[in-house]
Amino acid sequence: MTTIRHYLQFQDFSADEYAWLFQRAAHIKALFKQYQPYHPLTDRTLAMIFEKQSTRTRLSFEAGMHQLGGSAIYLNTRDTQLGRGEPVEDAAKVISRMVDIVMIRTFEQEIIERFAAHSRVPVINGLTNEYHPCQIMADIFTFIEHHGDIRGKTVAWIGDSNNMCNTWLQAAVTLDFNVHVSTPPEYEVEPERAGLYDTTHYEQFDDPMDACRGADLVTTDVWTSMGFEAENEERTRDFQDWQVDADMMAIAAPDALFMHCLPAHRGEEVSADVIDGPQSVVWQEAENRLHTQKALMEYLLLGKAI
Ligand code: CP
Ligand code: NVA
Questions:
Q1: What is the pLDDT of residue 276?
Q2: Which CATH number is 62's domain given?
Q3: 154 SS3 class
Q4: What is the mean pLDDT of each run of 10 residues along the chain (306 residues)?
Q5: Contact predicate 185/241, CB 8 Å
Q6: Catalytic residue among 58, 105, 201, 291
Q7: Do 172 and 260 share a structural domain?
Q8: Do 168 and 179 touch, CB atoms closer than 8 A?
Q9: Which atom of ligand 1 is nearest to 127's Cα?
Q10: Distance from C-alpha of 245 to C-alpha of 248, rounded to nearest angstrom
Q11: Are residues 280 and 140 in the same domain?
Q12: Which of 160, 214, 236, 282 has the greatest number of beta carbons closer than 10 A?
């Protein structure tokens, strides 16, 4: 029996596999821009399970699967038996007998791992409390479109050590670049939670300005992630000095990019002049979710037989 490949965290793929995916994403994007039909996944079905809200992830996976010739089914906790306590293992066994590939957005990483362990088809992480690998794949593809290889470059992560931050840290190990992290005290990176077996690719800075100095990319995310809403008031207080603003962009490299996975809160984690300014590539970054995830689904279902 062949082993099923899943995409549960960034380090599930090697640097060579990312090189392949980025090349395929560029090709698939070019076909899309030329309105050229491309249907390698005809008759394939994607199940998308959402236990948290989404705009971009749902849209990019659903539109992407249609564009590849297949179809997508949207499921959420409220309308399925998952919301009434059906074990994840049972759901995995049933769902994976009816579709070809599954994407899940849920809470603890452990939930998606249990699902994958009982799935007969590839499972993709569409965001957990710990990781958001599809987003970082799109972000790095966006970086490459502007600046070429990310190897040896510096990414400044400003704000919460959340699922996005953890995934950047994993990506830095896999693709050999550096992350400068600045979080408020008591929100520091937890290497074990980030799944890091190598901590040599990141450095922590108390002052966010120091983290941004000379960076090729400055990036941030909401102060309060989904599932942590009860901490919102306290976080809003604690993160006041971690807003990416024009001073931080000015101390970064002159051609530094700004990214944000969205949705964003102008006036909190980023100032309006930065996210709406000339160094911001957030709309291209959002669009690239579509192209990179099409490459991902193609790879998980067909391998390199293209
Ligand atoms: N960036 C991202 O994953 O957005 P959604 O929550 O809208 O899917
Ligand atoms: N860190 C955010 C990302 C949203 C796309 C969250 O988990 O809510």
A1: 98
A2: 3.40.50.1370
A3: strand
A4: 89 98 98 98 98 98 98 95 94 98 98 98 98 99 98 98 98 98 97 94 98 98 97 98 98 98 98 98 98 98 88
A5: no
A6: 105
A7: yes
A8: yes
A9: 3
A10: 5
A11: yes
A12: 160
Give residue 139's pLDDT. 99
**50/57 Cα distance (integer angstroms):** 10
- Given this model, what pLDDT does residue 3 score? 86
CA of 107 to the centre of ligand 2 (A): 11
The span from the CA of 147 to the CA of 141, in Å, is: 10
- The neighbour count for residue 100, using CB atoms within 10 Å, is 19
CA–CA distance, 263 with 55 (Å, rounded to integer): 9
Position 1 scores a pLDDT of 57
Q: Which residue puts its alpha carbon closest to atom 3 of ligand 2? A: 225
Q: Is residue 201 part of a domain?
A: yes
The one-letter code for the residue type at 44 is: R
Residue 248 makes CB contacts below 8 A (sequence gap 6+) with 156, 158, 208, 209, 212, 218, 274
Whether 102 and 229 share a structural domain: no
Cα-flanking dihedrals φ and ψ of residue 118, to 5°?
A: -115, 10
129 close to ligand 2 (CB < 6 Angstrom): no
Strand 71-76 vs strand 202-204: parallel, antiparallel, or unpaired?
unpaired
Q: What is the pLDDT of residue 305?
A: 74
Q: What is the CA radius of gyration of the chain?
A: 19
Question: Whole domain around residue 109: which residue ranges?
Answer: 10-132+288-302
Ligand nearest to the CA of 53: 1
